[in-house]
Amino acid sequence: MKTAIKDELINEAKRVRQNAYAPYSKFKVGAAVLGEDSKIYTGCNVENVALGLSICAERSAIVHAFSEGCRHMTHIAIVTDHNTPCSPCGICRQVLYEFNPDMIVYLANLEGQVIEKTAKELLPLAFERLRLE
Ligand code: THU
Asked: In CATH, which superfamily holds the domain spanning 2-122?
């Protein structure tokens, strides 16, 4: 069962990676999150000529989940075409942590390498305040 989820998320992240808009970096990223509603929500990076406006694939997937009413996620797969699986940027780590510090994070590349971590492993000593919801 666990392997099925992992493979499905990685395959979905691979599929949506092709939709990434990355004309500036040429670095396409795909992400797929599993909501606690058992649905998969995908996202890809979308860049902008004003480079600081670019959105990463991970946040794109989380925002997609929220827009469909899903507020808690259990797993995420992130796929890049790199010789080693890439790890999320600092901003995305904080965003993953917000919605589930125990979220399982699969970092994968197109060669089939996969590294498994949790959001809290990726962001030790995370910034935390009172949660309002
Ligand atoms: N990128 C992601 O989508 N996720 C990350 O965690 C790191 C970086 C994107 C942003 C930009 O479009 C491209 O990869 C190069 O940095």
From this structure: Cytidine Deaminase, domain 2 (3.40.140.10)
Map residue 132 onto helix, strand or coil.
Answer: coil
3 pLDDT band, cuts 50/70/90, is confident
What distance in angstroms lies between residue 74's CA and the mean position of ligand 1's atoms?
21
> How remote is the CA of residue 57 from the centroid of ligand 1, in Å?
7
Spatial separation of the C-alpha atoms in residues 133 and 131, rounded to whole Å: 6
Would you give the DSSP letter of residue 127?
-
**Single pTM value for the model:** 0.95
Any idea what DSSP says for residue 38?
Answer: S
Q: Quick one: pLDDT at residue 67?
A: 98
